Hints:
Elements: H1 2-28, E1 36-42, H2 48-58, E2 61-67, H3 70-79, E3 86-87, H4 91-99, E4 134-145, E5 170-173, H5 176-186, H6 196-209, E6 213-217, H7 221-226, E7 232-236, H8 237-246, E8 251-253, E9 261-266, H9 275-286, H10 288-298, H11 305-310, H12 313-316, H13 325-328, H14 338-356
Parallel strand pairs: 1-2, 1-3, 5-6, 5-7
Antiparallel strand pairs: 4-7, 4-8, 4-9
Amino acid sequence: MRQLVQLFAAVFIVAFGLMYATSLLNSSEGYSGGNTLTIYNWGDYIDPDLLAEFEEESGIKVIYQTFDSNEAMMTKIEQGGTTFDISVPSEYAISKMKEENLLLPIDHSKLPNLKHIDDRFMNLSFDPGNAYSVPYFWGTVGIVYNPDLLEGKTPTSWNDLWDPSLRNNILLVDGAREVIGFGLNSLRYSLNDTNEDHLQKAKRKLDALTPNVKAIVGDEIKMLLANEEAAVGVVWSGDASEIMTENEKLDYVVPEEGSNLWFDNMVIPKTARNIEGAYAFMNFMLDPENAARNAEYVGYSTPNKEALALLPEDISGDTRFYPSPELTEKLEVYDNLGKKMLAHYNELFLEFKMHRK
């Protein structure tokens, strides 16, 4: 028993020593728990120079972590193992996080730069009055294609993906809402459809697409398409912009049946510790100059009207990424389908992926 007590004591002393050493190291760098900001964002979704400048201006140390899906992000925040001061979920996830009491309300008085956001991107259905979120980026889901590999063909419809000439030549993003969504859109159904008959028809149609699908992938889809590993890819518009920068042969189109109009907004999770730091960072990113730099670096569309005016004309005037109101009226924002229906979408998507094997 004495040896066991001694062992526990030794473990405690070592653990305490490590905690003390970490604290001492942070203090030596000028940081402590009170001036550290933990941000949880998508991968490749911010200009790292802006993070460095924020640290220098504010004296706040940024701890930056990334996620690859809204579902993974929500699960981690729900579990509470890591405290995040800011996260950047998509619209339907924001709605769900509000329902589950995972977010703090936003005090607009602490965000003077919020005035620069275009009114079109405020007060949307997933967060009336922007009570819990602040716009970050927006965009569409569409088709990147390589005209050279398509022998001059130009896709205009989701149904073009089923062309037999595209056998083993399509890459898809690894997202249930995106893939099930374009399956529904191809049948002229809403991408928020919950009708079981419609969902099963979309699933069967997607199963028929599998001979054309080369792979379902994550962030590597950008490199693969830029390197001409496939003729066609279903991607988010910001990824399309980055891919086209790497390979100027490629082009991007939003199919005529319609598609997703998505929004990613900054939020403050309920367990946040550095709330004042969170406001300081959000206001920093809402500054038009910073928002313009971020949009140019990331390639996604900025909701900041003053930032848009600072962007080069070849970016701000590109209707593929800043589409006309006539096109955006045909697009749909993802609704919060509820936990049960979202799980069903994920199940259908998993069945589709298994069908390919």
